[in-house]
Design goal:
single chain, about 425 residues, alpha+beta, two-stranded antiparallel ribbon, 9 helices
Length: about 425
């Protein structure tokens, strides 16, 4: 399939991403998918080893101790799109008797449906779950204070548990406000910082594959908006997690960082019978559609459901050799994800995480390495490696106002747990700050 076809399918899936929290077939919610995980293109291109790396506006969103590292920053805004399993969409299937979407797209009926089915059905097979994430970020940062607002839409499937046409599609809509404060505890040697997030999230129930296929292959949606907004069970909730970070700079250009995240990260959800119901909770004097609509019904569960993600302690290091190689600005990074492998339980205190991946014996699997060079402060080239994982990417700055980043990753770290290797392609566009 050529690039034009891929872009068409991406647009179609993105349209589903923005309405997926609004329609579903049954009550089925994965609360763990509702927890917020932001997307960072430069971090992904360096194998997520950027905990101790500065130079990007969102560095402080990963490590709040970075707030005092640099001066003023303004993001107006950044737009990020991450496509999982792009190798599936870019595969040339014409020689295998598959449909050519560019020829079938202008047709109608079963021909179009079959063509689109051939393209998107692999996304619902196998064991990978993530499909697409769209994220926008606005923010401002001073010497010690920083704030940001983010809106994220995520699309995923339950293909790991039910493959093929039985897979369901899920959507998560998340709004996040973050405030941070950082300062030098010891001048030129140690920085500390703290950030707090207010998170509001809506997690949709499952949408069958057949419903998705009907939606993306039919131009005549008629009452699709009304039907989906008013007939979709959802879970909506909130959380107020915070993070604490510290940097130590033992000598020029070298930084060691530690960040404790998801502290007090409990999510509290309620179940509602439709997105319309959630809207009514926020705007009681207004409604999207007339109450005499055949789709209208309103019910909210009085029971609260809680989900608490694990607390993590990540370690990182970076070595900036710009003073030695001024023309290339080389930077090397290292990160250890959740170095202790413990989490906090309100009843039992510190406990070992259940997944073997976080055991002390598997700590080597959680170590990632990255590198970046920057030519003339305009072009950045990046790469990263870990066990059964590699990534590559780059960026370009135009007059220090426009910034474009691209990252590609190939992740096979979870094969032993029954999850197929997965690749992803992330593109980010930002104004003013990187």
């Amino acid at each position: 399939m050529n690039v034009k076809n891929t872009l068409r399918i991406t647009v179609l899936l993105t349209s589903v991403c923005f309405v997926s929290p609004l329609f579903a077939d049954s009550i089925q919610v994965n609360y763990g998918q509702g927890t917020y995980e932001r997307v960072s293109s430069h971090s992904e291109s360096m194998a997520n080893s950027t905990l101790a790396m500065d130079g990007y506006f969102d560095s402080w969103l990963e490590n709040p101790a970075m707030i005092s590292r640099s001066g003023f920053g303004l993001l107006l805004p950044s737009l990020t799109l991450s496509i999982h399993q792009p190798s599936t969409l870019f595969a040339d299937e014409d020689n295998n008797g598959k449909y050519d979407l560019s020829e079938a797209y202008g047709s109608s009926g079963s021909e179009r449906k079959n063509a689109i089915d051939e393209v998107i059905s692999p996304l619902f097979d196998g064991t990978s779950s993530d499909i697409l994430t769209a994220q926008t970020t606005l923010g401002i940062k001073g010497r010690n204070l920083a704030t940001a607002f983010e809106l994220q839409q995520k699309l995923y499937t339950d293909a790991f548990f039910s493959q093929g046409s039985q897979s369901d599609l899920f959507g998560v809509t998340t709004a996040v406000g973050t405030m941070g404060y950082g300062f030098y505890l010891i001048p030129d040697f140690m920085q500390v910082g703290v950030s707090a997030r207010a998170i509001y999230t809506i997690v949709s129930t499952g949408i069958s594959y057949d419903t998705v296929l009907d939606y993306v292959s039919d131009n005549n949606h008629d009452d699709i908006e009304e039907r989906t907004l008013m007939g979709t069970p959802v879970a909506y909730g909130y959380a107020f997690p915070f993070s604490i970070g510290a940097n130590v700079m033992p000598f020029s250009g070298f930084t060691v960082s530690a960040v404790a995240n998801n502290i007090h990260g409990k999510y509290t959800y309620k179940l509602a019978d439709s997105y319309q119901t959630v809207y009514d909770e926020w705007t009681p004097d207004d409604t999207m559609f007339a109450e005499d609509s055949s789709y209208y019904h309103r019910s909210i569960s009085s029971n609260e459901i809680t989900y608490t993600p694990d607390i993590g302690l990540d370690l990182g290091a970076s070595w900036d050799l710009t003073s030695v190689y001024k023309d290339l600005h080389p930077l090397f990074t290292l990160e250890v994800e959740d170095v202790l492998g413990y989490t906090y339980d309100e009843d039992e205190g510190l406990i070992q995480k259940e997944t073997d991946y976080y055991s002390a014996e598997n700590i080597m699997k959680r170590i990632t390495l990255g590198a970046q060079i920057e030519v003339l402060k305009v072009i950045q080239l990046r790469g990263g490696v870990a066990e059964n994982y590699w990534s590559a990417g780059g960026g370009i700055d135009v007059f220090s106002l426009l910034h474009l980043d691209v990252a590609y990753t190939s992740d096979g770290r979870y094969e032993e747990y029954g999850i197929d290797p997965e690749d992803s392609l992330t593109v980010k566009f930002s104004l003013i700050s990187k």
